[in-house]
Write a sequence for this structure.
């Protein structure tokens, strides 16, 4: 049965969508069956995996409002073994739609349940907010992977996310766990090193050892509709995410054992 991982952080620009795209693509290159659910109205994860968002007819929005089944919205990405349920700007209205539904917190969980046996990992790219859609995602997820930019402002915002996770765990999803914290956009300077040390000291083993360095090629890749390993496999960003995928698999193997 597949594992559902939400990538969440209410602060934008911390590498959340970049991590969704490149970690999922890296796992697919290791012959894992992976699905990305793009739950951000900006649809950057969709376009970054080669989906033409102008041509999308069935998206996660249609799944949420009951217009289609999740399997009907799945599209192939540019990476073999990696599928996508794309997003659409209409998802902005999902908050209001969900408010009027019965068992509204469980909508996404029920949508994804039939897909869990088809994939090893299902990644959900959350929007940079802590609204009702994000609560729905956390209720559906088995765990949360949190990208943390190596800046102090990013650290200050973590408490709100952790409080939301705690609330969802206590009221809606008692099995929800924190998969880990991934340090992103790292530059070799004193400030970034201080943030790395603080995250590792505070979160211990939950902080991944692999650090994602700030990399120009990594920033260019989404505009070409490709993950970094297809755009420039020699770039440091590609090496970082392949190493992150290896560490992710090793951690999950240890948990299963």
């Amino acid at each position: 049965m597949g594992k559902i991982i939400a990538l969440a952080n209410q602060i934008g620009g911390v590498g959340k969508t970049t991590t969704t795209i490149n970690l999922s693509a890296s796992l697919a290159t290791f012959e894992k069956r992976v699905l990305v659910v793009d739950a951000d109205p900006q649809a950057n994860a969709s376009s970054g995996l080669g989906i033409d968002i102008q041509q999308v007819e069935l998206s996660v929005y249609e799944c949420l409002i009951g217009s289609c089944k999740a399997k009907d919205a799945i599209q192939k990405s540019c990476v073999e073994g990696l599928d996508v349920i794309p997003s659409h700007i209409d998802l902005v209205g999902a908050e209001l739609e969900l408010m009027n539904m019965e068992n509204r917190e469980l909508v996404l969980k029920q949508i994804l349940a039939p897909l869990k046996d088809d994939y090893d990992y299902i990644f959900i790219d959350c929007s940079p907010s802590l609204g009702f859609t994000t609560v729905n995602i956390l209720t559906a997820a088995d765990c949360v992977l949190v990208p943390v930019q190596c800046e102090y402002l990013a650290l200050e915002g973590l408490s709100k996310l952790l409080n939301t996770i705690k609330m969802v765990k206590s009221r809606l999803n008692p099995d929800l766990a924190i998969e880990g914290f991934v340090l992103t956009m790292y530059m070799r300077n004193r400030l970034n090193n201080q943030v790395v040390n603080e995250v590792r000291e505070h979160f211990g083993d939950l902080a991944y050892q692999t650090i994602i360095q700030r990399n120009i090629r990594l920033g260019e890749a989404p505009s070409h509709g490709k993950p970094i390993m297809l755009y420039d496999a020699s770039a440091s960003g590609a090496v970082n995410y392949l190493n992150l995928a290896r560490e992710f698999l090793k951690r999950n193997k240890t948990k299963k054992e």
The two ends are 15 Å apart (CA to CA). The longest strand covers residues 177-186. The chain has 13 helices and eight strands. Strands lie at 3-7, 34-39, 75-76, 82-85, 121-126, 143-149, 177-186, 207-213.
